[in-house]
Amino acid sequence: MNFFIAAVRRDLLLALRRRSDIVNPLAFFLMVAVMFPLAVSPESKFLAQVAPGVIWVAALLACLLSADGIFRSDFDDGSLEQMLVSPQPLVLIVLAKVLSHWIISGFCLALMSPLLAMMLFLPSEGLGALVLSLLLGTPTLSLLGAIGAGLTVGLRKGGILISLLILPLYIPVLIFGAGTVQAAAMGLPIAGYLALLGALLVLSMMLAPFAIAAALKISVRG
Amino acid sequence: MKIKLPQWFYQLASPRWFYEFSGKLLPWFAIAAFVLLITGSVWGLAFAPEDYQQGNSFRIIYVHVPASILAQSCYMLMAIAGAIGLIWKMKMAHIVAKSCATFGASIAVMSLATGAIWGKPTWGAWWVWDARLTAMLVLFFLYVGVIALHSAFENTQSADKASAVLSLVGLVNIPIIKYSVEWWNTLHQGATFKVTEKPAMPPEMWIPLLIMVLGFYCFFAVILMQRARIEVLQREKKASWVQEIIQQSL
């Protein structure tokens, strides 16, 4: 287990040294959410209605954009190869990388989401649900995003390709995540939605690391 | 533990054997597809009774339903072929998977297009945000992803393996996407064919539909074999048996 903690620590330390990795997705998250009132309507009643969806789509895009970089720098400097040949199980190393990616992207996004909720006039009943749904949903996004990152890390033009591969897979998380917030804003129970988000997380945590490990082996060894 | 598989399974892995074997099968499937599609369309378009609600516009079902069924089975085949290719390192399985991807994407477009044409007179709109339409659109996106990933690699072997992994990930996701969009919104009529129940339409209507479905499957087999054969020739162009075929055809 020590190497797992060490791997998470290493990635978090790297992110702290290169602050833009943390700040950029957050700034992107904020800017996408600002585009909607500008493009559609600044009216508070309308914004309150679309806020759950807008915030979730913005969070999803922020996760997607940062997912491209999960393995990029490790691939470029060769440490990914070392991870592949190391005696530790690759599946766990991959899980550690996804966990640290989630901490610097999804977790921070969830913490920042109340600010966006205020800007978009989300009813206060939906606030807790928003943070909870993001906390439960974004780890799944990181896991799925890492599959795409693993498949495209060896390619020169990963950016837009990874969106093509991963966005369709994000749909269930988006539906249940935005559904949670919408239900809460209308005063309906959200336990069912949260249970579904949790189920998606458990399932992807079980299966995705194997897919990511297989993808990395293909990308590195050909 | 070692699992013993039948000999034909290993024979199928040889591109040369596949090329010769599919060459023998191809005409039969082509004839079957031709006969079934002609019978099914004439029967369905000219002789099947009119629908009491939708009138003649329902007749597009004879293209729409087979296309939709095929789009889904084609993905299954692509993912299973990809898995076989990854597990047994079979070149032939990857060739089949690659041929499935392009065909699947086009048949999914066909299903969406016929659905839109059918939706206009029935629902009054080309597109509605309904669960089954959305699920088919997502299936199309999954095909596009596999094709895009395959074409992004320069090395064919990595391309094959990477798209096999992606199609397997998609296969796990298809039921999840299906149910999530179903809970989200649904307007579409239920499935036409269910294994467990008798169809809700009279036999004069569903027998031609069944013939069309079978015809589409035969057509799929023909196209798949054709594409796979061309791919085999391209990939094995340095092999002496391929050189012989090229010499003969010149």
| Tally of separate helices of chain B | 8
Strand content of chain A: under 5%
- Whole-number radius of gyration of chain B? 20 Å
What gap, in angstroms, lies between the N and C termini of chain B? 49 Å
Helical percent range of chain B? over 70%
Instruction: Name the chain pair whose interface involves the most residues.
Output: A-B, 27 and 28 residues
Largest sheet of chain A: none
Structural class of the secondary structure composition of chain B? mainly alpha
Q: Which regions of chain B contain 5 or more consecutive residues with pLDDT less than 50?
A: none
Q: How would you spell out the order of helices and strands of chain A?
A: HHHHHHHHH
Shape of chain B: globular
Tell the overall outline of chain A: elongated
Q: pLDDT average of chain A, as an integer? A: 92
* Overall pLDDT metric of chain B: 87
Number of helices of chain A: 9
Number of domains of chain A: 1
**Quaternary structure state of the chains depicted:** heterodimer
Structural class of chain A: mainly alpha
Low-confidence stretches of chain A: none
H/E order of the elements of chain B?
HHHHHHHH
